[in-house]
Design goal:
This protein has 265 residues and is mainly alpha-helical. It is 86% helix and 0% strand.
Amino acid sequence: MGFLMKDQACQKRQTEGIHPLQVFKNNHERSCSRHFFQKDNTVQFVRQLPSATLLGQSCQLGISGFVGEMSSGVTTTVFNFLLLGLAGNVAVAAYGVVANFALVATAIFNGVAQGAQPLVSECYGKGDKAGARKLLILGSCTAMVLAAVLYGIIFGATDALVGIFNSESSARMAQFAHMGMRLYFVGYFFAGFNIVAAGYLSATNRPLEASVTSICRGVAAIVVCSLVMSALFGMNGVWAAFPASELLTALLTLFLLLRKKKQTV
């Protein structure tokens, strides 16, 4: 009879919209919350001031990604000022065309880096350095192939792509954008490797080197190269500043990777 009464009670709760498992869950949560006020509680809450050191350590691995996201704003600002001084609003409009496609290209390579990052972290956590290096090579090769495909599309359909944004059929703007697309996108042969390598460095607990790589390509190198090359070569120098800065960053990144490898051998 006792079992029958319990069964009938459960059925009544179910007809009232209350499931027995939900009742058990609620009772369990109430008992857990009361545990903190019981004598056998061993958990103590202590007031603790925020630690700047701990906060800095937590933010280290995110600096590379932060600089990478900020770099497009830095590049846009510097290029706009330079192009405005060289050829006026038409040149700025031409850069707007280049920048729109550049954002898409950068997102593709960021996807490769972010896809490889958890796999590299897993290998690093297991102590599998060979596996992590293999993933770096695979990611870099993938980036190179994507860069080749991307540049092939840009080179083969430059006028058609520029025409999408040239609603006023400005011949001067089309001329600037045509040359800009073909020079600027050469940089993604190096930028793809730099983005993947920065992700690799972050995933292998090397935040300082990852930050140096990102700051170099996103702020320092692009600003210096654009100022120097625009003064030497004019408009073409502005477009070529991106490939030049990415090439310099790639050389620096290779140095950091090889230097670390020699130290660990």
